[in-house]
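Key result, reporting period 2: structure in, sequence out.
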């Protein structure tokens, strides 16, 4: 499902502030908010850019989600799932931090390990990255067999991540926009789900795009 909605910078800042409040470890301590606010900090989406703080929030999200998953399993859930989407997204984005040196020193081996972990949890974007790591020897030895296997899993499952993949689009005029590649809130069980659906606005802003006619 794709939703293209144009919003103002003020609305973007309002949404980011909401995520900041919900991400507070001493407050709501919401794992998905921690992921989204971490991404906002990493790229400067509606807030001052801070790659170091981004890593802090993404790490908190991973730890928080892992704790929720553990509690779910202890409570009798056979496969967990209470916060799997948030956990996978946090792990995947931490891999991107180590791959690109966002807030941490570049570490190909660490990036590859994070991608492999997310892939093992079923995330197809991570499978794609792992396949690339195996093909290019990024963060470890080349592994053509592993490359073929990851690509097979990626193709078999289809390009459907567990939660939304979000990125920032900044044109030459520094206008900012959220862009969601996959708006798939799967098993989003936290009580603020309705607020996320209204505040996580997916927009594509092409100010330099030629008119269709």
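The corresponding designed sequence is given below.
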């Amino acid at each position: 499902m794709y939703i293209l909605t144009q919003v103002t910078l003020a609305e973007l800042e309002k949404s980011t502030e909401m995520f900041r409040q919900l991400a507070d470890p001493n407050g709501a301590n919401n794992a998905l908010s921690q992921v989204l606010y971490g991404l906002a900090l990493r790229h400067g989406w509606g807030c001052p850019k801070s790659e170091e703080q981004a890593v802090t929030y993404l790490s908190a999200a991973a730890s928080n989600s892992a704790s929720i998953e553990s509690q779910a399993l202890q409570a009798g859930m056979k496969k967990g799932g209470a916060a799997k989407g948030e956990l996978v997204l946090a792990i995947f984005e931490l891999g991107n931090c180590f791959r690109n040196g966002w807030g941490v020193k570049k570490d190909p081996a660490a990036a590859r390990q994070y991608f492999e972990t997310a892939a093992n949890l079923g995330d197809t974007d991570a499978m794609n990255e792992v396949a690339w790591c195996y093909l290019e020897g990024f963060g470890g030895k080349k592994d053509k067999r592993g490359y073929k296997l990851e690509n097979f899993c990626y193709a078999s499952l289809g390009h459907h991540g567990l939660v939304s993949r979000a990125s920032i689009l900044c044109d030459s005029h520094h206008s900012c926009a959220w862009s969601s590649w996959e708006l798939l809130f799967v098993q989003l069980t936290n009580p603020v789900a309705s607020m996320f659906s209204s505040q996580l606005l997916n927009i594509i802003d092409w100010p330099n795009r030629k008119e269709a006619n």
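The chain has a mean pLDDT of 71. Strands lie at 166-170, 176-180. This case is discussed further under Risks and Mitigation.
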